[in-house]
């Protein structure tokens, strides 16, 4: 087993998804997720992309991500807003609740710890 891994999605088929119907606020967003790493103990890493729309989010896991392209706005239930564009990074911790709105198709790389 290799002890290093690049974030290369060449040859990886993405998982296709969408927000749960009860969380959808507006639009018809579609998700594409390229899972690059699934390590023992609940560690995940990969690339995620979403088309425009808005939905509720509830984090039970810890996530770090870096915006590779696009424009999204994440708003917490406490009113704090994160205007995310190419080059921005954010950590969302367990317990974060709010909305994710994709204004321009957004692609991010991520590391999730459950």
TrEMBL record:
Classification via Gene3D superfamilies: Jelly Rolls
Domain (S)-ureidoglycine aminohydrolase cupin: 41-110
InterPro entries, per database record: RmlC-like_jellyroll (IPR014710), RmlC_Cupin_sf (IPR011051), UGlyAH_Cupin_dom (IPR008579)
Pfam families: Cupin_3 (PF05899)
Protein name, entry field: Cupin domain-containing protein
The species this protein was found in: Ferranicluibacter rubi
Classification of source organism: Bacteria, Pseudomonadati, Pseudomonadota, Alphaproteobacteria, Hyphomicrobiales
């Amino acid at each position: 087993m290799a002890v290093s891994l690049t974030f290369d999605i060449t040859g990886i088929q993405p998982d296709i998804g969408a927000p749960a119907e009860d969380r959808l606020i507006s639009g018809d967003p579609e998700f594409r997720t390229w899972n690059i790493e699934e390590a023992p103990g609940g560690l995940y890493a990969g690339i995620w992309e979403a088309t425009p729309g808005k939905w509720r989010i509830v984090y039970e896991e810890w996530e770090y991500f870096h915006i590779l392209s696009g424009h999204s706005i994440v708003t917490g239930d406490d009113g704090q807003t994160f205007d995310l564009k190419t080059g921005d990074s954010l950590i969302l911790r367990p317990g974060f609740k709010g909305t994710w709105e994709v204004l321009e198709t957004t692609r991010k790389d991520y590391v999730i710890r459950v």
